[in-house]
Write a structure and sequence with these properties.
With 107 residues, the protein is mostly helical. It is built from 4 helices and no strands. The radius of gyration is 19 Å and the shape is elongated. It has one domain: Four Helix Bundle (Hemerythrin (Met), subunit A), CATH 1.20.120. Bound molecules: zinc ion. The site of zinc ion has 8 residues, from α4. Pfam families: DksA-like_N, zf-dskA_traR. This is TraR/DksA C4-type zinc finger protein. Keywords: Coiled coil, Metal-binding, Zinc, Zinc-finger. It comes from Halomonas alkalicola. InterPro entries: DksA-like_N (IPR048487), Znf_DskA_TraR (IPR000962), Znf_DskA_TraR_CS (IPR020458).
Length: 107
Protein backbone atom coordinates (compact mmCIF):
# COMPACT_ATOMS: atom_id res chain seq x y z
CA UNK A 1 0.00 0.00 0.00
CA UNK A 2 2.69 2.47 1.04
CA UNK A 3 4.82 1.13 -1.74
CA UNK A 4 2.14 1.83 -4.32
CA UNK A 5 1.83 5.40 -3.07
CA UNK A 6 5.58 5.91 -3.41
CA UNK A 7 5.51 4.51 -6.92
CA UNK A 8 2.70 6.88 -7.80
CA UNK A 9 4.53 9.85 -6.34
CA UNK A 10 7.64 8.98 -8.30
CA UNK A 11 5.55 8.60 -11.44
CA UNK A 12 3.86 11.94 -10.78
CA UNK A 13 7.23 13.71 -10.46
CA UNK A 14 8.49 12.09 -13.65
CA UNK A 15 5.37 13.12 -15.56
CA UNK A 16 5.53 16.72 -14.33
CA UNK A 17 9.17 16.88 -15.46
CA UNK A 18 8.37 15.31 -18.81
CA UNK A 19 5.50 17.76 -19.46
CA UNK A 20 7.86 20.63 -18.58
CA UNK A 21 10.36 19.37 -21.12
CA UNK A 22 7.71 19.13 -23.85
CA UNK A 23 6.66 22.72 -23.13
CA UNK A 24 10.26 23.93 -23.18
CA UNK A 25 10.78 22.18 -26.47
CA UNK A 26 7.83 24.00 -28.01
CA UNK A 27 8.89 27.37 -26.65
CA UNK A 28 12.36 27.00 -28.06
CA UNK A 29 10.82 26.24 -31.40
CA UNK A 30 9.01 29.58 -31.52
CA UNK A 31 12.09 31.25 -33.00
CA UNK A 32 12.50 33.09 -36.31
CA UNK A 33 11.28 31.21 -39.37
CA UNK A 34 14.47 31.32 -41.40
CA UNK A 35 14.50 27.66 -42.29
CA UNK A 36 13.72 26.08 -45.60
CA UNK A 37 10.37 24.48 -46.30
CA UNK A 38 11.57 20.96 -45.73
CA UNK A 39 13.00 21.76 -42.32
CA UNK A 40 9.82 23.56 -41.38
CA UNK A 41 7.73 20.58 -42.43
CA UNK A 42 9.86 18.23 -40.33
CA UNK A 43 9.61 20.50 -37.32
CA UNK A 44 5.86 20.73 -37.75
CA UNK A 45 5.65 16.95 -37.68
CA UNK A 46 7.83 16.84 -34.59
CA UNK A 47 5.56 19.35 -32.91
CA UNK A 48 2.58 17.13 -33.57
CA UNK A 49 4.38 14.17 -32.02
CA UNK A 50 5.40 16.27 -29.01
CA UNK A 51 1.81 17.54 -28.67
CA UNK A 52 0.49 13.98 -28.66
CA UNK A 53 3.10 12.89 -26.09
CA UNK A 54 2.28 15.89 -23.94
CA UNK A 55 -1.44 15.10 -24.00
CA UNK A 56 -0.70 11.48 -23.12
CA UNK A 57 1.51 12.52 -20.21
CA UNK A 58 -1.16 14.95 -18.98
CA UNK A 59 -3.82 12.24 -19.09
CA UNK A 60 -1.58 9.88 -17.17
CA UNK A 61 -0.76 12.59 -14.64
CA UNK A 62 -4.47 13.22 -14.11
CA UNK A 63 -4.99 9.50 -13.43
CA UNK A 64 -2.02 9.38 -11.06
CA UNK A 65 -3.31 12.39 -9.10
CA UNK A 66 -6.75 10.82 -8.97
CA UNK A 67 -5.37 7.50 -7.68
CA UNK A 68 -3.27 9.34 -5.06
CA UNK A 69 -6.36 11.24 -3.88
CA UNK A 70 -8.23 7.94 -3.52
CA UNK A 71 -5.35 6.40 -1.57
CA UNK A 72 -5.37 9.41 0.76
CA UNK A 73 -9.11 8.92 1.16
CA UNK A 74 -8.50 5.33 2.23
CA UNK A 75 -10.15 3.76 -0.81
CA UNK A 76 -7.15 3.44 -3.10
CA UNK A 77 -7.54 -0.31 -3.44
CA UNK A 78 -11.25 -0.26 -4.18
CA UNK A 79 -12.82 -0.09 -7.61
CA UNK A 80 -14.48 3.26 -8.25
CA UNK A 81 -17.49 1.65 -9.88
CA UNK A 82 -18.31 -1.60 -8.06
CA UNK A 83 -16.31 -0.83 -4.88
CA UNK A 84 -14.79 -4.32 -4.90
CA UNK A 85 -11.06 -4.60 -4.12
CA UNK A 86 -8.83 -4.25 -7.19
CA UNK A 87 -6.58 -7.30 -7.72
CA UNK A 88 -3.09 -6.85 -6.32
CA UNK A 89 -1.38 -7.84 -9.56
CA UNK A 90 -3.42 -5.26 -11.46
CA UNK A 91 -2.26 -2.52 -9.08
CA UNK A 92 1.25 -3.86 -9.44
CA UNK A 93 1.11 -3.53 -13.24
CA UNK A 94 -0.96 -0.31 -13.28
CA UNK A 95 -0.33 1.56 -10.04
CA UNK A 96 -2.72 4.33 -11.14
CA UNK A 97 -5.66 2.00 -11.79
CA UNK A 98 -8.86 3.03 -9.98
CA UNK A 99 -11.13 0.47 -11.65
CA UNK A 100 -11.11 -3.30 -11.33
CA UNK A 101 -10.50 -5.28 -14.50
CA UNK A 102 -14.19 -6.04 -15.01
CA UNK A 103 -15.22 -2.39 -14.79
CA UNK A 104 -12.26 -1.14 -16.86
CA UNK A 105 -13.11 -3.51 -19.72
CA UNK A 106 -16.89 -3.76 -19.91
CA UNK A 107 -18.16 -6.56 -22.10
ZN1 LIG B 1 -15.25 -2.75 -10.51
Amino acid sequence: MMERKQRLETLRDELVERIDRYRDHKEQRAGPLDKDMEEQAIELQNDEVVDALEREAEDELRQVMHALARIDGGEGELCEVCEEPIAGERLEALPFATLCRDCAEPR
